[in-house]
Amino acid sequence: MKPTGPRGVGTQADFAPYFYDNGPYSNNGNLALFSLSEDMPVGTQIYCLNGTDPEGHEVRYGLSFDPGSKEYFRVDPRSGNITLVEKLDREKQDSIDVIISITDGRSKSPQSSMFAIDRHSGVLRIKFGEMLDYEKTKTHFVTIIAKDGGGNFNGKEQFLSSFATLTINVIDAQDTPPSFIGTPYFGYVYEISTPGSEIFTVSAEDGDVGNPNPIRYSLDEDAVFGINTTTGCITLLIPPNYLKREVFNVKVRASEVSPEGRLMDYGVTTVVIRVMDLNNNPPTFYGENGPQNMFELTMYEHPPEGEILRGLKVTVNDSDQGANAKFNLKLIGPGRMLRVVPQTVLNEAQVTILVEDSAAMDYEKHHFLTYKLLAVEIDTSERFSATADIVIHLLDTNDNAPKFSSDYYIARIPENSPGGSNVVSVTAVDPDSGPWGEVKYSIYGSGADLFLIQPASGIIYTQPWASLDAEVKSKYNFYVKAEDAEGKYNLAEVFVTVLDLNDHPPAFNNNFLQKTMVIGAPVKIEAVDDDAEIPNNVIEYAIMKAEPDNNIFDIDTDTGEIKLKSYIKSMAIIQNITKKRDCSWSLVVQARDRGQPSFSTTAVVKIDITEAGGPLGSFLINRNNPMQIIGMLVGLISLMVIVTIIISTATFMRNKRSNRILPNRRVRRRPRSQNLWSFRNPFRKSETQREKFRIKEDEMEPEVIVENVNYNNNISNVVRHWCPPPPPCAPSLPPPPPSYFHGERHWTVPTVSAAVAPKPRKKPLLERQDTMNKALVSELKMRLERRRMMVP
């Protein structure tokens, strides 16, 4: 049923929500009468409560059971869906009494659980342990359901019921003390305030709002402030300059007054009163003698990092109080060399300046440093500030070593320059002042023997007695040292290149050369240029003149190889050209270098041409095919190795059978014969082909004496004594030629190609292979000469 009146006290009506009555056997509504099967599964939704609020507010649903009874159902407070949560058993309990409730959405939670009703008498009571509180809930709504014991109607058993919503209004009682409104409280007293000035007004009300009592205000302490007992206005009692604290915590009491005028229950709160200073004083810097805006200090450069500049005695002060006296300190100047502490000041502080970057405080960069010390208020609207100049004069120290303009210097000087010639000038600078900035130069190193340096100017020149020769040594390097008065120094490396001049002409080993040429094989001449560098020592060869006039030769301009022209294949062709049986030519060959200016020299080359024949000639022709020669040598060496292995194996087996152990034999090298040349008879058969080409060395093997003297420096001193070379000796002569035939040129074929005169500066090495070839050529010439003489 609908409520008959408003829910609370006020001018606006507030009606209770109610359930819809959809009749028995319905699955939604007020759950007036509902039947369940005992085998209904747990978790099944069995019913849906359905209700509404007359004001249109959202409703909430609730369930409650008799005390001590089992709770079989649970309801969703928003949707009203009731779910079975416990197993039913009809043999134990055939009916379940459930109290359902409905409230509007403004209530925090259903309160019907505070009440219980007697099932028979219908008396509604407050449950044991529960208590009504007006300050929490002023109105309770309880739905009462009445049903009969059931009976037969229209042939079936039927239970009839009815429900009503009971509205319970709670009456307030004097059980709550007064409470202050709008806490916390803050008040302010300014330095221009006068006694009696209002500071703050507090407000309190009786906690029993249903029947409130009047409030009276009072202070626990009233020596500094006072309060109006009725209005709660707090006032100042003394001038502000007598206030000894910045903040006061004032306790205010609000008490209920009974109708009889008696003070009853009370509440207490704290009012924080802050003494506010007016911002009428800017920060000020002070020195030893009072206010000051310029501070000076003299100190050496590069002080230790973290050091305090003790010569500066600066104090900063703001005469205001509280936040008006709070300001920041900043140091404005070049770089981050210095920093100031403290950075935040309240009222007054001693200013300390610390070194932060010692390296930057350099006299060579800054003779003096100027900073601005700035004090700026933080939390004021006026933002008062003050500045002071900090001037620091730096004194120089010897903190720099001389520094060269370059880490290395490259110089070039022509060879044969006179002694005392300038080579290069080095420069080093020491930025320090006075004697510390004066630089002296010196040189040292293995390559500095031929050079001097002027200590003051740094000019490097050659020794007066020095003679630079690129052919002897073209590269020198040494170190130059720049040092100040206290010994601080730096080094640079000097590289000197002696420029080669074309001061040496090409030179042949002999100005008259004699060569024997086999058709198909070139002959080679060689000149040497003692200059050190190209193109001064690069030689070009050319045939300047040929006698007879018919020049049948070509020369390689780079290598000096002389060969017959390509169309000359035999001696017959040469004889047809010359109309003579004599095949001897004299060539004037020029060797010219490529220097500037260019030098040249000439030599006469006599060439005897012969034709190859037999295996020996074939070998001579093929000597320009190195791969074929290498193959022959490899085969010969392999054969020798195999023979050696066979002999060693046979000797070992013989010794093993005889059970003998042969002693070790000392191998001694016999001195070689003093004869320069020793030929075996080429026509006599030898055991091996190798003996045909065996010759003796032209010089004795020098005796080497090694004297190893041990010193405690891990360097061996090796002295070599070479025996002098043997005196020159003429080679063995061939057999005398036959008698002279008329009509033929009478000339003698030499057994060697030429006599080599040693050069004073360079001596070309005579290879063994060339020596052997010359010997073979001589043998071949002898055989050809005999054959020619025997022809009628």
TrEMBL record:
GO CC terms: catenin complex
Membrane topology: Single-pass membrane protein
Transmembrane segments: 629-652
GO biological process assignments: anatomical structure morphogenesis; cell migration; homophilic cell adhesion via plasma membrane adhesion molecules
Compartments, as annotated in UniProt: Membrane
Keywords, ordered alphabetically: Calcium, Cell adhesion, Membrane, Receptor, Repeat, Signal, Transmembrane, Transmembrane helix
Gene3D superfamilies: Cadherins
PROSITE patterns reported in the protein's UniProt record: CADHERIN_1, CADHERIN_2
Domain Cadherin as annotated: residue spans: 34-180, 181-285, 291-404, 405-508, 516-617
GO terms of molecular function: beta-catenin binding; cadherin binding; calcium ion binding
Protein name in UniProt: Cadherin-related family member 1
